[in-house]
Every structure is written in C-alpha cells, then in structure tokens.
Amino acid sequence: MQTIDTYNFQGKKALIRVDFNVPLNDKFEITDDTRMRAAIPTIRKVLAGGGAVILMSHLGRPKGVDSKYSLKHIQKHLEELLGQPVRFADDCIGESAKKQAAELKPGEVLLLENLRYYAEEEGKPRGLADDASDEEKKAAKAAVKESQKKFVADLASLGDVWINDAFGTAHRAHASTALIAKYFPNDKLFGYVMEGELKAVDSVMKDPKRPFTAIMGGSKVSSKIDIIMNLMDNLILGGGMTYTFKAALGGHVGSSICEADKLDLALDIMRIAKEKGVNLVLSDQAVIADGFSNDANTKLADPMNIPDGWEGLDIGPETRERFAKVIEESKTILWNGPVGVFEMPKFAEGTRAIAEAIVKATEKGAFSLIGGGDSVAAINQFGLADKVSYVSTGGGALLEYIEGKELPGITAIRGE
C-alpha cells in the first residue's frame, strides 16, 4: 500500500477528505480550529510534491443548502493557516466545482462547499413526513442510494488521487469517506492525521503500559463503556453521567442531568467493572449550583444528596484530588469527555485538574490520548495540548476503533 510519503504528487490533483467540522459562534467565528490545524501537514505535503489540492468536508448537520453551514465561513482562516490563497467552489459537484478543479494548477488549493448539502453524502433520505409508511421510507432510501452512485462518481472525477485524512468521520460509510475509494484502486492514501490517529490508538490498544486509566465524562451514559473496560485497570467516570450512576444507587440528585432510562445500564456497568476487577472511580463531592449559569449560587455537596432546585455542574476539591492521584499513577491514559461544565469559569476547575494531572503523568512517561470534541476543546482552552502525548480529532470514531469495530474509512484505504 502506498503512503503519503512514497506517493508522487507531481502534476496530480489530490482530492482530500478533511474534517473541517469546526465549532462556530453566532458571528461565524471559529472557536476551536484543532481539526483544521491538524490537516495542514497533509495539504502542505501534496503542494510541496508538485500537486494541487481539492479539499472536501462537511460542516454541521444541514438538511439541504443553508448558508449557516457554508464552508465559506472557514475559507479566510484556512488561508491564514496555509499562508496562501484558497479558492472556493460554491458547490461540491456540478459545473462550478468541475470548472475550478479543471483549472487548478500545481501549488493551488480549492475548497469545495459543504458535502452534506446533499443527502447523497450520508445516503439518508430527507424530507419524509413523520407519518410516512414503511414502504415510503424504503422507496426514499432506495432513491437516495441510487442517486448516491452519481454523486460519488462526480466527486471522484475532480481528482487523480484520493486521500482520507478525516479520522473523525472514519466510522461512517459515507460517499466521501469510504464509497469513493473504488474510483481510486491504486491511488488512495491515508493523510498524516489518519496515520497519526491509527498509530496513537494502536499504541493504546495493542500494548498499553499498566496501569491503564480511562476517564469518561460528558452527560450521557454509553454502552461503549462496558466494552472498553476489557482494556483498562481504572475507570474514572465524571460529568453529567455521574448523576445517572448516583440515582441508580438510590441517590437524590436534585435537578442534575439524569438519564432515567439508563439506570439499569449504569448498574450493569458497575457490576461488570467489579467482575473484571476494574477500579471504578466515581465522584464523592460535587460543586452544585441553583441554576445553569456562571452567576449562579454554588456550594459543595454529596452527589448522593443534592437538594431540589440544585444541580451538579463540576467535581469538588476532594474528588479532584482522588481523580488526580489515580491519573498521576497511570502509565496509559485515555480521556474522553469533561467532568464539568468547563465552558463556564466557575465550573472549569474539575476539568482543569484532570488535564493537569494527565500532563503530570505524561511528564513522568505515561502515554496520554485525548479524544472527543469537548475534551479536545478543554485541553486547548487550558493551553495544555502540547503537553500530552496525542490529541485525537475523533470522538465516536476513536471509541469505535478502540472497541475493535471495523471503520469504513479505514477499510476503504487498506482494502481489508
């Protein structure tokens, strides 16, 4: 299999699937450009090799053409990152894209409009009525799959070589991430982002140094947790899911986030952890507030006994110390999800403590892998991204790969 370092790009047009699904504020300003910065080395490698670059990505979840989700919003920042002009096509297929791609010269970069303006990118029908019959749904899905073939062919016609550098979407069998591969049987490659991600995750999966600690945060309890427990020695659970676990144990969690339909799953996870000998570490002190606001009143509380009208928004100082001690004694660390509402300064200290403990462990020789959009945003917010081993651009893809699932975007390149 050819690699990005062995391929001859001279005179070639490289169609690169990047993951520029970056967060934008209400002024369409990028609030975290991690994924864009990650793709720059791959783009520069093609340009330095005498090739031209055609970039394709999605942004958000549009249900058709919607200027709110236009990649035009990121064009200027991309030019700043690359230090050169970037052309923009107002479509990802069609005459506009074909014309600009045909005119592209070596050393130039073209950014295509949002792939998900087309239902064919995901292969899912849109606009079905809520009361559509099974037959109508089946017919709509078949119609999209049929038109998807032309969509894929039109995309493929723009380039000479296809590079998949979008690890964040590698778990999706979409047009641009997997189906397009058949048009490039001998000219398909991983970009540096994909190569780096696979190397980092493989180092965690295949031969982790012990103890191996996973920190899982966020608001939702997932069945993925019990699967990855096969790998680890310690499992720290934080964030909003804490209160689902506490409720499952019979606690009173006030107004905290709690998935009432996941109480049995939480109990199952605790049972499996005990059976597997995994040290399950839950918060025993919460920072609670009387409103979801940085200006709310706060106090410390036992997460098993939170008053009505109050909600847990961070871990308390005692829990920070407990979590940090486990992390700092670890040799392999996976962090997916914050342990508090770190976007608000008043509730960021718990997540900051996690990040700082991971840095300390890394300085002592541990391998640390940070994944998931919120964890990545947090490590960047605290200015610590360059002090951990690897910051992943994938969330769901990262966990699915660790679970051992086949990722279509990887299989499409490796031909497995």
Key phrases:
globular, 6-stranded parallel beta sheet, alpha/beta, single chain, 416 residues
Structural class: alpha/beta
Subunit organisation of the chains: single chain
Radius of gyration in whole Å, from Cα? 23 Å
User: Gap between N and C termini, in Å?
Assistant: 12 Å
Average residue-wise pLDDT: 93
DSSP strand content: 15-25%
Main pleated sheet: 6 strands, parallel
Task: Quickly count the helices.
Answer: 14
> So what's the overall shape?
globular
Report the helical percentage. Answer: 25-40%
Low-confidence stretches: none
Describe the structure.
Helix 8 packs across helix 9. It is built from 14 helices and 17 strands. Helix content is 37%, strand content 15%. The mean pLDDT is 93. The strands form four sheets. The protein has a six-stranded parallel beta sheet. A six-stranded parallel beta sheet has the order 10-8-7-15-16-17, with helices on both faces. The radius of gyration is 23 Å and the shape is globular. It is an alpha/beta fold and 416 residues long. The longest helix is centred in the middle third of the chain and has 23 residues, at 134-156. The chain has helices at residues 34-48, 72-82, 94-103, 119-122, 134-156, 192-205, 224-228, 241-248, 263-276, 317-328, 349-363, 373-381, 396-403, 408-414; strands at 13-17, 52-56, 87-88, 109-111, 161-164, 188-190, 212-216, 234-237, 252-253, 279-282, 286-289, 298-301, 305-306, 311-315, 332-336, 367-370, 390-391.
